[in-house]
Description:
The chain folds into 2 domains: 41-117, no CATH class; 119-194. 23% of the residues lie in helices and 35% in strands. α4 packs antiparallel against α5. With 194 residues, it is an alpha+beta fold. 24% of the residues are buried.
Amino acid sequence: MYKVISILTLIFFLNSCNESFTKLPEQETYDEELLKFIIPNKSVEYWQVDYVYGFSPKKIFSKGNAELAKQIPIPEVRTGNGFFSGCQPSYCNYRILYLKNKFWYYVQDTEELSNFIAEIDNEKEAFLIARINDYDIDSRSSKGNDYGYKLKVNKYVSCPESKEAFIVSVQKNRTLSKVKDLGYYYKSKNCIVY
């Protein structure tokens, strides 16, 4: 019995040492694409992702009962907040508008986004949790772009420009933990100013 347990433990250990990761295709690494793969709570009847440039929202994706959504007036949005902001010198971000139990709600920050994702159902949601925790996807290198619930991601710094690789683990309850620091794989003395 002891030999069988030892052999099984060894096989498990050897398999865990040989973890394999699959690179996400570049077109699937953008925030807009990752957001489309959210599987919200079943009580969400309709939801849409808006891209907000300046203060002008544009619907880029929607899912659910659009007819029901037309029957209930949309509340006023809170002032220009959103998540995954950028676009210097202008301002852009994303927000989610959703209908649940006949009431409209907005997702306008990363904490609300994490709650909207609820339980992790796929690798795209796992990447979103990593993004919420300041990790990025490097579409050009497998050192900072692989998926599974254990993700190979990177942290990007623009001045001086550098990329550092990590392996993180994302649990179904949205808990993220850093498993391993893989070190810097790109460093320069240049500063990238947006």
